[in-house]
Each structure stands twice: as C-alpha cells, then as structure tokens.
Design a protein that fits this description.
Blueprint lengths: L2 H36 L3 H13 L1 H12 L3 H25 L5 H4 L3 H22 L11 H21 L23 H36 L3 H13 L1 H12 L3 H25 L11 H23 L10 H19 L2
C-alpha cells in the first residue's frame, strides 16, 4: 500500500467534494428564484431541476464506475445517495426551530413524491429477483424506470395545480405562495444560465469523485460497497444536504422537501444509467447483499417519512419529529452494521 498515492488520491477526492459543496450552496438560491419566475412551483422545480442537477455528481460517479467495470461501486453510490438524501431531511428538521419540518411542509405534492420514491425502489428489486433478461445488454427495467419517473412527476405536477384534497392548515403550516414576476426574458435567461453553469460544475466534480473513489477502493483494499455506499455517496450527495438546509433557512420548505425526495427519486435513475454504461450484462443482477440491505433500509426510512408527513406532529423529541429521530437512528445504525460487518 503506497501511502503517498493514497494521500494524493484522498486530496483530489476532498477537493472535488469541496467544489460540490460550494456549487450546491449557490444552486438552491437560483432554483428558488426560478420556481417563482417560471411559475412552476417549488415542489416541481425541487423534484425535477434541483433534484436532478444536484444528482449530477452521483450520475457521473456511477456511470464512471460502471464503464470501468465496477458495478458494485456504481450501485452502492446510487443507493447510498438515496439513503443519504432521506437522512438529510432529518438534519434539516433540526435546523428548523419553529416546528417539525414535516408538519410545516406537508402537501399533496410531497406525499406523492415520497410515494413515487417507494414505487421506483421496488422496480430494481423486481429486476434483481427476476430472470436475467437483457436487450442489447440492457435490462428492461432500465427502460421502465425513466418512464415511471416522468409519469410520476406528471402526477406530482397535477396534484400541485389541481389538488383533490389538501392538508389541514395550522399556524405553522408554510404554504407556498409563488411570486408573480413580470420578468423580462433576459433576466429569466440569465437565471437559467446560472443554474446550468452550476450544474456543469457539480457534474465535473462528480467525475473527479468517481475516479478518486475507484482508486481509493483499490489502494486501501476497502470494499466497493463501503466506498460507494458511504464515501462517494455522501460526497456526491453534499449538494442535496447544502441545498436542503439552505432552502429551509430561506423559508422555502416545499423546495427543501421536494429537492431531497426528488433527488432520491432521480437517483433511482442512476441504476438505469449505470445499466446502460455497464457492458457485463444486467447490472441489477450484480446487486449483492449490502446493496439489497440499503434498498430495504431506504424503503423503511421513506415509509417512516410518509407517516410523519401524514401524522404532522408539531413538536417532538428535541423539537424535531419522531420520524426524523427514527430516520437518523436507522441510517447511522444501518450503515454501522455494514461498516463493522465489512
């Protein structure tokens, strides 16, 4: 083991992580302004644009690993990122002191986003448990996932614009009130350019994290499941943590919840992208016990989050909801089992 090589790789890894954190801080403010300027709403912008853009680092990391014939790292990075996004809401809940975040941000759109995430997570499990069928080396589930994702987004958008029911309003409920902006076209174009520039920076840094993550796995002898599920997943998910906390502090609660859950839903597509990039057959059949454990853990955490959004407890333990406490315990407990069982 060459300690000098490990130090250089770790330094490059850390540099890419810092770039991701910086760009992620900026992109939340731009996304909130876009939500108002375009009239699309915080839930939709959070789910599609903010969730998608902050997932770019993870996308590039997983695709880089899959192309280089490291399916375990590609899968662990994607699934570990989804689990991390869920726990980020618990961290954001701690920073919001007026009430529990899930109480204040409850809406039809956020409930549907969480339900969509559970639905999407079931598809890779079905693919893994089923026969290894491929078309030009691609499993049919990789074609189903994007279709299911965009159909789900359409339902989220319709639920936001034409809700059939709504949560009871309380003193702590933060209802999104989009600002009608009589914007000049140049200003809107400038916002989009800022958004896409930051997204490109995140993607480039994600490539660096992916390459460094593969190198660290080889140099240190740590398993790809551990490197992907913890180090690269958390690092490439830093934009979600930064943007979620930033959005909460700005009072854009729907954007915060929509961005975190939307980022998780988008990250399920990383499995499909990785399957396209992986040339060794169906990537779903490369799922090992640690990855299946993480999928089950994420479904459990998302279910608890849904219960929290439905129950809408105003104040809980240490002024955060029961669901945030349970999600934090499950996440750190679950990954401790993986770490020490490695």
């Amino acid at each position: 083991m060459d300690n000098k090589s490990i130090a250089i790789t770790a330094s490059l890894f850390l540099l890419a992580v810092l770039v991701i954190a910086f760009a992620g801080t900026k992109i939340a403010k731009v996304a909130e302004r876009l939500a108002d300027a375009t009239g699309l709403g915080e839930a939709f912008v959070g789910a599609l644009f903010l969730g998608g853009s902050t997932s770019l680092a993870g996308i590039v990391t997983s695709i880089t690993a899959a192309v280089n014939d490291h399916p375990e790292l590609a899968l662990s990075n994607a699934l570990g990122g989804i689990a991390a996004h869920t726990v980020f809401l618990g961290i954001a809940d701690i920073t919001y002191r007026k009430a529990n975040l899930e109480h204040a941000a409850a809406s039809v759109a956020t409930l549907m986003q969480a339900t969509l995430l559970v639905t999407l997570l079931a598809i890779p499990l079905l693919a893994m448990a089923g026969p290894e069928i491929t078309i030009l080396g691609i499993h049919p589930a990789s074609l189903v996932l994007p279709i299911a994702y965009f159909l789900g987004l359409r339902l989220v958008s319709e639920a936001q614009t034409k809700p059939m029911w709504s949560p009871q309003l309380t003193d702590e409920t933060r209802v999104e009130e989009p600002v009608t902006v009589a914007q000049e076209s140049p200003k809107l174009v400038r916002l989009w350019l800022q958004f896409f520039l930051l997204a490109v920076i995140v993607a480039i840094a994600g490539y660096g994290v992916g390459k460094a993550g593969v190198s660290l796995s080889v140099q240190t002898g740590l398993s790809e499941s551990l490197i992907g599920g913890l180090f690269t997943a958390i690092s490439t998910s830093l934009p979600e943590l930064v943007t979620t906390v930033a959005a909460v502090r700005q009072g854009a609660l729907t954007l915060a919840v929509g961005g975190a859950i939307g980022g998780s839903s988008f990250d399920v597509l990383l499995l499909a992208f990785s399957d396209f990039a992986y040339r060794g057959g169906s990537i779903y059949h490369a799922l090992e016990t640690p990855q299946i454990f993480v999928v089950a853990l994420t479904i459990l955490m998302t279910g608890i989050l849904l219960l929290g959004l439905l129950r809408r407890e105003k104040h809980g333990i240490a002024n955060i909801g029961f669901e945030s406490v349970l999600v934090l315990i499950l996440y750190f407990g679950g990954f401790s089992v993986l770490f020490f069982g490695n």
